[in-house]
Amino acid sequence: DSGVTQTPKHLITATGQRVTLRCSPRSGDLSVYWYQQSLDQGLQFLIHYYNGEERAKGNILERFSAQQFPDLHSELNLSSLELGDSALYFCASSDHLGGTYNSPLHFGNGTRLTVT
Amino acid sequence: DAKTTQPPSMDCAEGRAANLPCNHSTISGNEYVYWYRQIHSQGPQYIIHGLKNNETNEMASLIITEDRKSSTLILPHATLRDTAVYYCIVRVGLTGGGNKLTFGTGTQLKVEL
To answer: I need a labelling partner for B32 at 20 to 30 A (CA). Which of B16, B57, B71, B72 fits?
Structure first.
């Protein structure tokens, strides 16, 4: 158990809808990362938050947004969903901003999103 | 980004050591080598990381060559539960202090009886 909690585990929704994925980092971790894993794309970095502030963006679509709250949990909002958004969405946390590159990321077990 | 090259697949007999190679010839001096594994759609699991010296923990050993251009992850006594995709990653720093792990395609390790 990594200590990172993601809810829900599974989500099925229709095209055009909006969903919110939730992540609770390990106790004491200030950094939260979001990744997307689809069958044909592998693990893709989406976005990184540190102590409530956005610190880095990856291949995140404009229809997607995220935030990190004062209690350090994070939410990933996906809107105007398309069939191609079906994927596993992982959250990871670490205890540092990561500037020294010496702080492992610990991943949750993901949310499986199916868009029909 | 420092890129990594791994064989797409490897087989290993249960109880034997599994040695997974990784090439990272463009690695910079302050970049760490990380290893993760992913067991069938579960979240990636951190295994080990290192900078220059060899490292060992309860899961595995990491051997980094002196020129740091390649490394080997060693699972000393592989079991069926070690069947997974293994990712070798060079940690990249981004402007502003944020950094990420960039996952490649990894090595599918199959441990067999």
So the answer is: B16
* pLDDT tens figures, A49-86: 999 999 889 989 999 999 999 999 999 999 999 999 99
> Which value, to the nearest 10 degrees, does the dihedral of the CA atoms of residues A74, A78, A83, A84 take?
-60
Best interface-test mutation with A: which of B24, B94, B99 has the largest number of A CBs within 10 A? B99
DSSP A96: S
A67 membership: H or E segment, kind and range: strand A64-68
B48 touches B60 (CB < 8 A): yes
Q: Return mean pLDDT, chain B.
A: 91
CB contacts of A93 in chain B (<8 Å) are none
- d(CA A74, CA A49) in angstroms, rounded, equals 8
Predicted confidence (pLDDT) at residue B35 exceeds the cutoff of 60:
yes
- Interface probe, candidates B27, B101, B103, chain A, greatest A C-beta count within 10 A: B101
Chain B residues with CB under 8 Å of A99 CB are 93, 97, 99
The DSSP bridge partners found for residue B88 are B35
* CA-CA-CA-CA dihedral for B10, A110, A60, A18, to nearest 10: 140
pLDDT tens-digit readout, A90-110: 999 998 665 555 788 999 999
Average pLDDT over residues B68-94: 91
**Cα dist from B90 to A17, B23, B78, B81, B85, whole Å:** 37, 10, 24, 25, 16
